[in-house]
Each structure stands twice: as C-alpha cells, then as structure tokens.
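Hey L., structure's done. Input below.
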Amino acid sequence: MTKYTFDLLKVAVLTLCATSYVLFPAMASTNEERYSLVKSGWWGSDYQKISNHCNWTAITCNEAGSVTDIAAHYWPFNLPPSSLKLQNLNLTAFSNLVTLYLPRMQLTGIIPPEIDIGRILASLDLSYNHLSGSLPIELANLLHINLSFNFFKCSEGFKVFHKESLIGNTPNFPSCSSQVQKTNKAKHLIVIILPVTCILLIICLFILYFTLSTNKTKIEQRQAKNGDLLCIWNYDGRIAFQDIIEATNNFDFQYCIGTGAYGSVYRAQLPSGKVVALKKLHQSESQNISFNESFRNEVKMLTEIRHRNILKLHGFCLHNQCKFLVYEYMERGSLFHVLNNIKEVGELNWRKRVNIIKAMANALSYMHHDCIPPIVHRDVTSSNVLLNSQLDAVVSDFGLARFIDPDSSNQTFGVGTYGYVAPELAYSWTVTEKCDVYSFGVVALETLMGRHPRELISSLFDTSPQNMLLKDLLDSRIRLPHSQKDAQDIALVVTIALACLHSKPNSRPSMLQVSQQLSSSGQSPLPLSFFEISIHQLMAQEL
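Output:
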C-alpha cells in the first residue's frame, strides 16, 4: 500500500467518524449519561453489567434512550450513606432530564453550584434528605420544587425568591424563609435597641462618675478638715459611729469604768446587744504629742496581731475631734483591781492565779517569738492584764509597744511603769525582749502575793529573804494550797519568776522557755514538803 493510498484511507475514516457524530448525536449523549450514572456509584455492580441503563431502577428514558426522569421514593440498594452524595451524580450530563425526584434518600452534600438548572425544564423534589449548603438563585425558575426538611443555609440572595415559586405544590419548605424574617426582625430590633442602650450606658457612666467624683471631693474635704476617718468593725458587721455616741450618751461620765495612763475607758452596749469597751483620748490629751502617738501605736499593733490571750481590737476612730478605740469587753476589769478588792480577791484561788500567769506567758511568748519582727510590750503591769467574767486573762494596753529592729540599736527613752521596769533601762535605754521578761516576773509574784513584791525584789540578794519560806510569801487572804498540784504549780511559778528578775538580762529565760515550763507544771514532785520550801532553795534551782 502506497503512502498516498494510506492517506486517502485515513481521511475516509475521519470523515466517517465525524459524520456519525452529526448523524447520530443521541448515541454520544446516551453514552455520556450512562458513564455519569456508573461513576456516581449509586447503582451496584450488578446493574452496571446491564449495558442499557434505561432498564436500571429509578431511571426513565425517552425513545432515543436519553434519561428524562431520575425518580425513586426510596433507594433499593444497601449502600453506605457516604456514597449517596448529590454531587456524585453529574446532572449536567443529562440534557433531556425533566424530573429529579429523590425524596427520603438520605442524600448528603450540597446542590452542585455548576448545575444547569435550565436543563431540568419542570420538577425537582429533594425533600427529607440531609442536604446542606446555599441554595442556587436559579431554583426560582423551576415550576415545581420541594426542598423541605433539609439543612440549607439562608443566604442574602435567597430573599429574592417568591414563596409560591419555591413551594409550588408542596406544603413545607425549609425554615430559611422564617429565619430570614427573624433575621430581618433582629436587625430592625438591633437598629432600634443598640442606640438606646448606648445612650443609657453613657448616662449611667456619667452619673457614676459624677457621684464618685463628688464623694471623693467630700471625703478629701472632710479629711482635710477633721483628720482621719472612722474605721470601725466587729465580728458581727460594721458598727456605726452614731451607735457609739448614743450608747455612751456622747461619752457621759456615768458610762466611764476606768482611767488609764492616757484616756478613759467606757462601757457601751450596742443596738445588737453586744457590749464593748471604749478607750477615749480626751481632747486635752489629744493635744499631747506623746499621748497621740501612743494611741495610734496601739491601733497599729493590735490590727497586726491576733492571740487568744491578747485583747481584741474591734475598731477605732482617729478623728481630730474624737479619738477612741473599740475593744472586747472584759467584765472583771484589771488584775490590779481584783487583787486590791477585798470582795473579789477571794474568787482568785490558786488555780485561777496560775492560769492568769500562764496566759500572760503565752501572750508574751507569741509577741517575742511568733511575730515578725518581734514585738516588745514595754509596759507589762497588773493594770494591763484584764479579766473577763470567768477570770480568763488577756494582755492589754499596747500604747508603748514597739517592733524590735535587729538592724538598729532599739534605744528608747525611759518608758514603762515604776516598779515594773527592768533595771538595765535606767542606764542603757536599750529595749529588748528581756525587759518584758523582767516585768512578767514582777507581775507573776504580785499575782501570787496579792501585792507588789517591791520589798522582796530589793532584798533578793540579801541573806534574810533567802531564808524566807515560800508559804510566808503567798497572799494571806486565801487559804494555803491544800492539793499537791497547786503546791507544785506555785513552787514552779515562783522559781520561774525569780529567774526572770535576774539583774543580768542574758541570765533571764526567754518567754518561750517560760511558756514551755509552765505548760508542764505539776509534773515534777517537790523535793520537800511545801511548808518547808524556802526562797533560797527556789533561787538555787535550775530551770
């Protein structure tokens, strides 16, 4: 065969192929439709073996073999739902498709955006499926449409649809239309509510700012005029300043229950029924710089420490015209008062006296060893030990107390009460915890003796008092201890008190040691009969 003959044959074949596509266009369209049906995967392999797809379930063709209807009330094959996606069916391949009727088919996916809605000329029913996504605007051109009970999103373009053209002969449509209406209503509400809310918020902020500014100005003016403001509290809530004034009839003398180193003490019953004690600095005393500083110092100390054997501060008022402190009320007053009251001293048996001394030791040990920095009271006296109705003791009056600074000399001018001050302060003016230890020893002996031990202290290093018997030292207004425990406790307290009165500060025990020793009282047997023990023997005994 010559090259010329081959070329003629090639031209003839190409011409025949071209003529077949012109003469038989339906044949090419039919093959494309079958290919699209096979590729969708909706029909099983058994159906795909049948060459004529017009015989497949749910498929209807015209006389030329082109698909006109894809319609089924349910899918007859057991296929996984993931394979039943609408976009898997290439709808653009079906040029003669009239009806797409696939309700309740568990279809998923979206309506393909590239679908040529114009080539579907009459009915679309995809209701009761799981389709989602946006709705193409071209759906409005269909005569009958039912897309109800799906999960389509409402887009801005959807608002141009008319309700009749969307619903057609079907009673239900996705709730998009109602959503759009709700969205429009919400937008209208936002347009109205938002400006009103903003205006109200601005007004509220302006009122709040104006109120705060006014109050701040008033407070600043009041502070500049009157000094510090009232700051009162208690465990049951705030106490009003007016309640204090009314409870004492403006600090009338009939409510006064005592007078201290500075100021007077008043009893006040509040409207709640709670009884408190008020220490008030008188107007003349408030002009005294030292009194004023002591008053403020007590506030500072008692607001920073809390202990069951330290007087509780409930509040205070620091005002140029009125300064007072609010304490818990101690019904029996001071230890000094009870010791010097013939009617009350009988209630102070030996057990209660030892417990009072233990309470003092616990309070001072807490101040010296548990507070950071340590606190020295500097005025431990029987007048500054208060008793409640049960004769339980607390340490009070912290006007002279101060923090111990380890980096400074802690020097001070002579302070304290005569007869209780440590002897080293007379020449060194250096305050240490051992100053409180000495004062504690004085008060401990005073509690057991019923009187100040000044004669005993002045003659401690003479020979005569060392031969004094312990029983002769005790308060003669009550019976001598008749129980072994009371006798042991008294002997231990006197031994500790004598050690606290040592002339050399470093030879005195710490309050921590004192507290620990007293907590173990009654455990060591007496070497002799209580009535035979001398002061000399107790002074020689080591702690």
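The radius of gyration is 52 Å. Confidence is low (pLDDT under 50) at residues 8-25, 157-180, 219-230, 233-237.

-- N.
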